[in-house]
Amino acid sequence: MAQQKKIVILGAGESGVGSAVLALKQGFEVFVSDFGAIADKYKNQLTARGIRFEELQHTEEEILSADEVIKSPGIPDKAPIIKRIIEKGIRIISEIEFAGRYTNAKTICITGSNGKTTTTMLIYHILKKAGFNVGLAGNVGQSFARQVAEENFDHIVLELSSFQLDNMYEFKADIALLLNITPDHLDRYDYKMQNYVDSKFRITQNQTSADALIYCLDDEEIMKVMADRTFSARLFPFSLDQKVEEGAYASNDTINIQTDKKQFSMNISELALQGRHNVNNSMAAGIAAKLLEIRSDSLRESLGDFQNVPHRLEHVAKIQGIEFINDSKATNVNSVWFALESMNTKVVWIAGGVDKGNDYSMLFDLVKDKVKAIVCLGKDNKKIHDAFEDKVEIIVNTASAKEAVNVAYHLAAKGETVLLSPACASFDLFKSYEDRGDQFKATVKEL
Fold this sequence. Notes:
This protein has 17 helices and 20 strands. The protein has three domains: 6-93, NAD(P)-binding Rossmann-like Domain (Rossmann fold); 103-305, Mur-like, catalytic domain (UDP-N-acetylmuramoyl-L-alanine:D-glutamate ligase), CATH 3.40.1190.10; 314-446, Mur ligase, C-terminal domain (Protein-Tyrosine Phosphatase, Chain A, Alpha-Beta Complex). The mean pLDDT is 93. The chain has 447 residues and is of the alpha/beta class. Belongs to the MurCDEF family.
């Protein structure tokens, strides 16, 4: 009898434990190793299934006896244990690669530097509303592997970060969406933009003429690659600036979608998601929906009643005529650009936190045009002061969500907007961007 193959899983979060559940179901010997502490809920899940695991260490002897290693997307290739696995010649794959082997579900895969969670949730909403037997996985929802192990979906909508794409080899997206590419996470890519771009384009690998690639015609980095490479998949561009024959474009306050002789149009003012970047997200989702032959009346309804994900341009309250918006998920400069671009009023902007090497120059024109005051929320706000002191008259330092909200409330006037859109990570004052957003919302509701 053939010896049982051994799978080692590094990282015991949602992705790792989901992989362990699937590996056990497929008959592998399974061992889970996490260099940090494992959350109780995941320990309980592993224990209940009799899956061996360790925490706060990596036992090399155990790990290097694997036939294959599934790596959590959060573990960098520079980690010592990863180097040892590579030296030993053991194959390292992602959870997405592993789960893809055991499902026949049609996959709709979304990546991009910004907007991927929103677009993923929107496509899931459209499909669910149209009656599809559909799962939601990847960077959102339960892990892909867990859903393959425990559910039987016909379609799965997957949000894929560049880290998840990096260890995918045979996996194929039936419909791939590439929304945009702007500098982010460059510390993981040797500070080379091309490495990051190549990572994003892995979403197109293994696609055939039966598959579809939906991409932004207005994105410079995407179009450089599109001009250089040939693609097997059918191509469906979307654009705010140019008319396209097949794909989607915006003109005269209307989005127009054309696929396989199927046409769809909708007034931009009727879309649930507002702002130029969200028109792009809606067009990309609309193309995917039409390729899946979703009826126009159902699509129109879904694009009109979708509620955005928490902490992403989330309307919190209107108090004394002042709108409060929580965009705590905006942890890079590009996300803030999209947020400010979508504002139609004067803005009191709450920004700051742990700087990720930000270059604020792309915001200068928007800030001059729309921002009346900046409320800094972080331990070290010098970089924000230096960048904007000659663009905005008022810049105030605060050290808590409560203080930031109260200061912003007093600076804003009726008909204006208080926008939390930090451009930075949250770990100096908060547990996470969710914690930052939750504290902001709670304080606003106390006003």
